[in-house]
Each structure stands twice: as C-alpha cells, then as structure tokens.
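Input record (one chain):
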Amino acid sequence: MRPIKNRTELLREFEALPDSAIVDECFAAAFRNRGAACLQRERWAGTGPKFVKDGRLVGYRKSDLIAYVDACVVSPDGAA
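The corresponding structure, as predicted from the sequence alone:
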C-alpha cells in the first residue's frame, strides 16, 4: 500500500506529468479540489470530466481534467 499524500504533494506531482498521462481518482480529486466520492457520483450521473475505464480501473487523462476545468470558467459579466 502506498503512503497517503496530501493535496499539495499530489498537485506537485500532477503538474510534472505530461498532458497524456492518465491519473487515478486521488490525483483527479486533488486537482479539482473535490473528494473521490464526488468524481464517482459524477461518473454515475454521466457528468463531470471524461474518464478512461479499463476493466474495473478508472483513470483520468490530465489533458481532459484541464479541459473540463477550463470549460467551467464563468466570467462575472457573463461573457466567456
């Protein structure tokens, strides 16, 4: 079992990864400042960022997470 890392450590590692890297729920949750349960609920509901499923394993491409967050940006005056 790997040691539990805090959000800062996960974000530092996430930043160093190439955009094509596939990360697990822990990295994705840290990047979005959410819990893993939130990601699980979004997958179940068909919302949230794109994900990769290989059998029972679920991962997220770094580039998909960044694109999802970028698409969620709202300007105060309503313009994109």
